[in-house]
């Protein structure tokens, strides 16, 4: 099964528990079902318009735009619900959080969490390789940053590659 409802890295998937993985699979199946239903609805509308001789009009494009908007709204709802569940069910243990080198506050937005963790690593480590290695070993960040983890990972890797 291809997972494209969220953008997690392999290392983030590795630290998820069974309940979280099942929730991701369920959300992905819902999204896949909506995608299949969307294609079928478009096919039926196209056939209906062909049958009525109206396919060359802008009606089909309007219908497709409306169907796409409804589909996207439903997928966004599924995705946001899943991310909410993962955000609060994936909290590391209190012991792990207390050993975290930066404050872990789940009331912050993901963007604020990203900035907090990024600032910690940028201000603590001057050597890009050492910074990146420390970040990769940070298990709290994998759960704490959610979908922002790959962004920070790529950003810190960029500094390593630049020398």
DSSP helix fraction = over 70%
Uncertain regions: pLDDT < 50 for 5+ in a row? Answer: none
Order of helices and strands: HHHHHHHH
Basic shape: elongated
In terms of DSSP E residues, the strand content is: under 5%
First-last Cα distance: 38 Å
Task: Describe this protein's structure.
By secondary structure, this protein is an all-alpha fold. The protein is built from 8 helices and no strands. The chain has helices at residues 10-14, 18-52, 59-89, 94-98, 110-124, 128-136, 139-144, 149-162. Helix 2 packs antiparallel against helix 3 and helix 6 (128-136) packs antiparallel against helix 8.
Q: Brief overview, please?
A:
With 163 residues, the protein is an all-alpha fold. It has helices at residues 10-14, 18-52, 59-89, 94-98, 110-124, 128-136, 139-144, 149-162.
Please specify the SSE layout and strand pairing:
Elements: H1 10-14, H2 18-52, H3 59-89, H4 94-98, H5 110-124, H6 128-136, H7 139-144, H8 149-162
Helix pairs in contact: 2-3, 6-8
Keywords:
163 residues, 0% strand, mainly alpha
